[in-house]
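pls read this protein.

:::
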Amino acid sequence: MATTELYSKGACVWVPDPESVWVSARLLRDFSQGDQQLQLQLGDGREVSYPVEGPSGLPPLGNPDILEGENDLTALTFLHEPAVLHNLRVRFLDYSSIYTYCGIVLVAINPYEQLPIYGEEVIDAYSGQDMADMEPHIFSVAEDAYRTMTREEKNQSIIISGESGSGKTVSAKFTMRYFAVVGGAAQQTSVEERVLASNPIMESIGNAKTTRNDNSSRFGKYIEIGFGRRGDIIGANMRTYLLEKSRVVFQAAMERNYHIFYQLCASKDLPEMRALKLDSAECFRYTNQGKEMEIPGTDDVVELEKTRNAFTVLGVQSDTQMELFRILAAILHLGNVHIQASGRGGERSYIDTEDRSLALFAKLLGVEGSQMAHWLCHRRLAVGGEMLVKPMAGQQAVEARDALAKHIYGQLFSWTVQRLNAALRSQREKPKSFIGVLDIYGFETFDRNSFEQFCINYANEKLQQQFNRHVFHLEQEEYVREELPWSRIEFSDNQPCIDLIEGSLGLLDLLDEECRMPKGSEESWARKLYDQHTTRSAHFRKPRMSNTAFIILHFADTVQYECDGFLDKNRDTVFEEPINIMKASQSELVAELFQQDSAGGAAALSVPNGAIRSGKRAHREHKLTVGFQFRQSLQLLMDTLNSTTPHYVRCIKPNDLKEPFVFDPKRAVQQLRACGVLETIRISAAGYPSRWTYEEFFNRYRVLLRGSLSGAGEVRAACQRALSELIPDPEQYCFGRTKVFFRAGQVAVLEKLRGERLHAAGVVIQSWVRGWLGRLRYLRLRWATFTLQRYARGGLARRQAQRLRYTRAALVIQKTYRMVTVRQLFLVIREATITIQAYARGLLVRKNYRKLLEERAAVCVQAWVRGWLQQRAYGRVRAAVVLMQCCMRRRMARRELQKLRAEARSVEKFRELNKGMEVKLMQLQLRADQQTRESVSLRDTLQSEREAHRVELEQLRSSLRRMETQLQEQPQRTRKTSEREEEERRKKDEKTANDILQLTQEIDALKTERDGLLKDKEELSTRLEEQEREQADCMQRAVSQAGADVQAELEEERRRYQGLLREFTRLEQRYDNLRDMSLLSERPRGHRRTDSTQSISLEPPPPPSLSPVTSSFSGSPAFPSSPEEVRRVSVTSPTPTPLIHIPSHTHTPPPTPSWRPLSPDAGSLSALMEEVGVAKDAGDKMRGEDLKHAYDAVRVANKLLEEQVMGQRWQWEREQAALREQLEGLQRTRAAPGDTTSHQLQELQEQVEVRELECCRLRKELADLRGVAALRRVLSFTGPSVSSSASVNVSRSTSLRRVGSSANLLECRKRDEAKLIKNLITDVRVETALSLPLGLPARLLFLCVQQADGSGDQSRAHSLCTAAIAGIKTALKKHSQDLDMTALWLKNTCLLADLLSQHSAKQASADGEELVRLASDYSEASRALSDLRIQAYQQLLAITEGRLHPIIVPAMLESETIPGLSGATKPLVSSRKRAGSDPRAMGAVGAGGGPEAAVASMAAVLRELGLLHAALARQELPLALQEQALRQLTYLMVATALNSLLLRKDMCCWNRGLQIRYNVSLLEEWLRGHGLQAGGAVATLEPLIQAAQLLQMSKKSDLDASAMVQTCNVLTTQQIIKILTLYSPQSDAEERVTLNFIRIVQGLLKERSEGQAPQLLLDAHRVFPVTFPHQPASSLGLGQPPEPLAIPEALKLSFLRRA
């Protein structure tokens, strides 16, 4: 409490008021001890007496006027409720500021209006800044959480709380959007898009309109955004809590069901939605109960489109989306199912079999309608081990139907959340840390509060307890534990209320117990509550007029709950029979939803969808009630929040009428008292918000400490010694037992000191390294200089010797030449004399002979003339026939092209393209089958041989046994046998023995052979198996590798194509801007030049018009040059096709030969790719003929489609130009007098027709002259007179067509093309390139193109242009950070484009001189060069912008270059480097910052601008182009500096305005010194100049306000008011801007702001259109006798030959 001395006369105090809560009053006299009353004068002039009961009863004092509108409540001198309420009201109503800091809490007031403070420029302004330096914003809290996470590597959480309708959901969305932008990867990925895409989906299925909020979240949501090691988003995870499923079947008055139902009903007329059979929302019971079908300002059709797009981004296919919509539509139809009562007293119920709603429900879900109708009206009971079916009453059947609808929606909601989490899950790596964003339902109290409001308020009690313990309880306990001098502050703890709800025998325990009772009811549960808690808990009361309700005294308000429905909602049961029907659904999604019910307890615990009631006794897992599950999930949430570093956002609802910028003090103070903001103010202002352990402090600020540590116990002593030196004021810190504590702002001071120390050390290291590198470079340069000098001197000596030799040789040549000349003259004279004598002697004879010869010659001339006339007639007929053939073939080709395009768009085409791979696989399979058949045949042959050998062996053995048997059976011979018979028998025995021996040997040989064959068979089988295995492995590897290559290439092409589409949209907008500028600008009469952005659009230029004469003699169309080309087939069709004509436009002849023979082989396909301009680098990397063919064919098809788009674009442009010309003609006709104007127009038309006829006549004469010249050449044998006259005519016609000589053209052969591009463009050294004459590469390339074009090799000329363009692109990419090289190639690109344009056949002569025209059309190359020079120009700006961006704010706002002014300004407390919050950029800034990072002053800015200007001037680029570049850069600097100024309170003071104006004057002086002030660069500085003047102007009287409004005519109303609001005096001589003065300025600006769009920040990403000045032919040296170009030897272009 303030001392009594402050209560003097005129002091401001606050007194209570029943309407405004607190009102301001002033003391009329001093207060003295013992006074019982205070005499006060209220704001309306009334005088009142305020009773005082001692010093403690004095009213609160008011803060000084200078503190009105403070952005941090802790900065107020007097901290109490009226001061906080008044400050919030002033900021909200007068300053339109909805955010205010309150220590560690951000107070956000819902404006109920869209404000322009959430754009990308605002995100850029807050990114990397400290909370203390910037205006309060939700982005500032998000940035603080992000920086804390990246710096301390700790998980963070942002807890957004407040009442329903206070703006929590919107705050959570903006927080996630901020993380998606600043945490995005270096290259744009889809992770951030998927994170943001989850918002519209969850809003559509989880948000609904209530009486307090049009977009109220009816579920709790906690999103964990995972970040990788580099600080970029790599995934996310979402947890939901307590979906309000009862809203599906019931809505209170003035409320709606979930948004998705109304979105579907509003989109019922869409073609894809007609199958759902939906009607308007008024026709469905589940959507018409609240009588609110629409939300003002919301289009449900548009919202559904956003939802569908979000599903697509998250990877949900369109058929799955439609299946999801069918389930939602089925829920609506289920609500319209009519259940009729029957029987006595309505104890039975039934559903009509013809019920249309039931039929639609069954059809949409794919279930049996009759079964569903039966089990909706019956239930199954188990009695005595038997199953009985019992009918249900009408009301019970309706409840069962509603329970089924709620269960279906709950399962669908859970499935959607699972799909979202699957899409958001990180695939690359495990998140290193995360930031959680809690968006949970706010505290609710309605006229009738049920189970949902009870759970919601219970969750808010837990969150409030967490907030209390973090901000109050833990704060004081920390100080006590650390033994700090601190007085305990009492605060209200809501633990008794939480114990009442979740404690033993609390409300939830008694509710679960009543639910387990067989005949439990709400009445018995209420009685138990009264008996248990009425006398035992101060937070529980019983209503006087009801026995089925109870009252709980919550932290925010007192709420009465009706017990009706508590038990049913807590059980959340649904009968098993309808669930079984749903499980048997034909729809896969429906079956998947209801298979989750059989997952057991784990699923029931994670997805609280209630229990399933059946006739049998359910499992224990299904007995978990909704209250029990919600309590467990809430406890898990509390554990997660307690393990993170919390950041609090308190949302305030300013009024209950949802009116924009209407402040109700009663509602506001009620919420302020409940959320603990006032207690936060006291703790934050009086305590130590920052704390570090001694080890952490020592490790973090080791660079600031001196000396070394001898032991671990000296850490605390070292910290104490260091802090006494770093922070002189001992009140700003305090030492505890284990930690050191700091007051607010001291950690930022230490961070600044640490950064300065590290920066100084880095500068020392850089100086040594750069010195060493400089020394090394100097030594190399010195050695190179000596070498060059040695070679140069040798070259000069050799040149002198060569000159002497040339002089001596010249003398010899002159002597010989003179002798030869005199002798030739003598011979000529002698020959002439002899000739004259001969003619004189034979004059008479020759006269007669000549007469005969002339007669014969006349006859021959007549014959040749008549023949020539017939040939010309025949040629015309032949040309007409050929033209007709061309038209027919073109028609056939167009049909074939349409067929090819249709095939190219189909999936089957790609399968045909891969047909070669399939054929290859089939060939391999056939080869394997053939080898298998050969193996089988070998096995059969071996088996047959074995069988033959076995049969023969058996025969021999049987014959042997037979012979032995015969010998044994033969009777004994008599002894009288003769000697002869014995001898014969002996011989036979010997022969038999020999035969047996021979057979035995043969058998052994066969056995050996059999063993060998068996061994060979085994080896062959093993080898075949190995070969088959190897072939299969090779085939598998080849197929997998080929498929992977094809897939990778297709993905790359798809990514490039999507990038081209995005670039096309942006470039089309730039084209429109340039076209508008061209209409406003004046052009020279003798030259009509298209806009420079013609290169940006994808349209071809208009082709030259052909007269009848020129078309007749231009020759036939380009036919295939060889029979081989005729046999070629299309690359996109397996069957041979005729030649395909590809026109660039329907009615316009193409500029290039349009007959393109296509072939499936590699060579022809490469030729086709060269013709259509498709690069071959990616295709050449592929392996395999078929894969390369398929890939190249796809790329060719894409190119053909692009050409078609270009043709359509050109047709549209032609129609637009014709309409514009017609409109201009009508305007001129309307503006001129009637008869005179029409007469003049008629005369002009007649003159034009006469000129056209004259041109046609001249063309015909020229053609005739060409024919006569050709005839004379044919008849040259008739005499010298005819040949001489013909030669004279031919030379005269040639002189009319050409001026100058082509002797200086350069010839580049096809095989040397790559070498030329490499030596001249891609691999040229920087020193060599910068030493070349200006434009030498462009001139060399043009001479080569001109030579190829003149020699008739147009394909080589086009190929050279394409290669040159590709080479320049490669050079730009290679030197993407080099200003000089980028400017060099910008110069050459512009020069080459101008040369092609000037020599084009369509270009008219600008200076009246005829140039050597190019025969072919190079419009494609000209467009590519125009695109390329725009790319080079943008690269120049990007290089300079990248160097300027880190130093713009420090140089233009923070630098103090005025002598004597730095002492008067307040020192800045933090660094302004963006890299401080982005760990990915810290290394780059620290390593490459150099002097620019060390000295962030205007000198550094001007040095960067000077480097750009020097690079442009060195290449002699036009002054207009330099002015445009400087205009773009000055706008960037002004936009960045002004945006930072509008968001930083420490910059808005008089001294800083003077400094800013001085810095801008330096920039103006630099522009004028370089002659660049006329291009608009100075005009872009005006907003920052006026902002500086606004800071310096007087701000007291009405005259000051009028002068301010007149001076600041460029600044918007929002910008002026923002600067006045942020203006902070830095000395006693200044005064703060009063609120009354701001209101005066607002009134003066109201008229001016009526036609302006609300704009606070400038768009720093705005790009001005660039126009490249036209270079006339005289400036390029055209039309003059060409001089040979001197090609330096360093380029190594000796292979070029002069033509």
